[in-house]
Amino acid sequence: MKEKALILNESDIDRILKRISHEILERNKGAKNLVFVGIQKRGVPLARRIANNIKELEGTEMFAGKLDISFYRDDVAKRVKPNVEITDIPFVIDGKDVILVDDVLFTGRTIRASLDALTDFGRPRTIQLVVLIDRGHRELPIRADYVGKNMPTSLNERIEVSLKETDGKDSVTIYESS
Amino acid sequence: MLSVKNVIDIDDLSVNDIEIILENADTFNEVLERDLKKVPALRGKTVINMFFENSTRTRISFELAAKRLSADIINFSSSTSSLKKGESIIDTIKTIRSMIADLLVIRHSDSGVMSFISNNIDLPIINAGDGKHQHPTQALLDLYTIKKSFGKFKGLSVAIAGDIVNSRVARSNMLLFKKMGMEVTLVSAPMLLPEDLSHYGVSVKSCIDEIIKTVDILYMLRMQFERQERKYYPSVKEYNRFLALDEKRLNMMKKNSLLMHPGPVNRDIEISENVMNLENSMPEKIKINEQVRNGVAVRMALIYLILTKE
Prior knowledge:
The complex is a heterodimer of chains A (178) and B (310). Chain A is 29% helix and 29% strand. Chain A is α/β, with parallel strands linked by helices. In chain A, strands 3-2-4-5-6 form a five-stranded parallel sheet. In chain A, strands 1-8-7 form a three-stranded antiparallel sheet. In chain A, helix 3 links the parallel strand 4 (97-105) and strand 5. The mean pLDDT of chain A is 93. By secondary structure, chain B is α/β, with parallel strands linked by helices. Chain B has helices spanning 15-32, 57-68, 89-98, 113-120, 136-150, 168-179, 236-243, 247-252, 273-276, 288-307; strands at 46-51, 72-77, 103-108, 125-130, 157-161, 183-187, 203-205, 217-220, 258-260. In chain B, the strands form two sheets. In chain B, strands 7-6-5-8-9 form a five-stranded parallel sheet, covered by helices on one side. In chain B, strands 2-1-3-4 form a four-stranded parallel sheet, with helices on both faces. Chain B is globular. Classes of the chains: A alpha/beta (178), B alpha/beta (310). Chain A binds chain B through residues 68, 70-73, 76-77, 80, 82-88, 116-117, 120-122, and chain B through 1, 23-24, 26-27, 30-31, 34-36, 38-42, 45, 69, 304, 307-310.
């Protein structure tokens, strides 16, 4: 894998998350019915950051949970995920507008699994999807409601998202297999 | 990912394996606290519970664990099977295997039967207790219970008290506790101890009073009357005096220490009726029910890790 290009740096990511925070507030007419759920692992800090942005804008405390979808994948037996992360949704999602957050939208299978998992926790009024990068190549009829950056890619490319909370820095880089 | 295909003997598991199992148990523990206590992880997989010896908690625990993971589970009981017509164990298992199973959970009264079976069958096996040999899932759920209270293992002192010689739980637990850096003392009488303890690296005491004030964990064993071909102990009164836990001794235990027992408890033999009745009011000390509860999460972790291994 060789590095092809740096797509987003720290301030790009910061601006994107601020813009998305405003879009969420605009579309939902405020923050009062919102809860946030980040998909492990890098969706979790992204959800936390958006929730914090909205708290600053609206002055209301926002809940942000964590969701691990290992047990809901349709390819459990084919693909080994070494470490299952914790799921922690310590609030009721019934009747809420759930903002589901992930770093990269690719085939859509992670999102399908997330929808199954969330359904086990209750019946939200709506589920809306935020992704930092949409790289295309969908295998299921799934789309995001809020997209940080559309990044058309080829299948031999890889997108690497780094975040301060998990990787010590904020960046999105594209790699190409050589 | 686990380094082993079968879970038969604690010695086969590396410290890394054990840590992976405990971490996964945590995530399954969270699943068990949800309103909807089931995940679809193992849809389409089939687990066979083969119990050639009686069991309540272990069989139900494995059954629940498989069901919470959405695997299908078949319960086989030897007393109503063709074993009664003289079919051998291997033929019985091969018959079940040809109906396509993915995992066998086996309990048997013969020590060491597991390695014989695993040498003859190419399916993964979890040992749910074999004779006086081992009961690794009990040891793992006990370790998980300890982890939830102490958050660490190194340097903890544990005393295992009672009928050691007949106990597969004692054998698995000694090995596992030592492996994780705990100090193990056995409290028992000469007739209730195995002849050779040298390779376990444990010390031995003869009365519970010698350790009661200092141990972090007091692990009581069940007097296994069903395995005692001869009389191992002169009288219940004598047993009570040296090896049983009553309220007075319970109150001598140090702060933050735990009382554990693998169940089923012989009331008024190894643990007094009074102490048993205190469990609901002392959940931070008496862990017997919590052990059972943790068993489901730990067994979910094992089944999941074995069936998702490449």
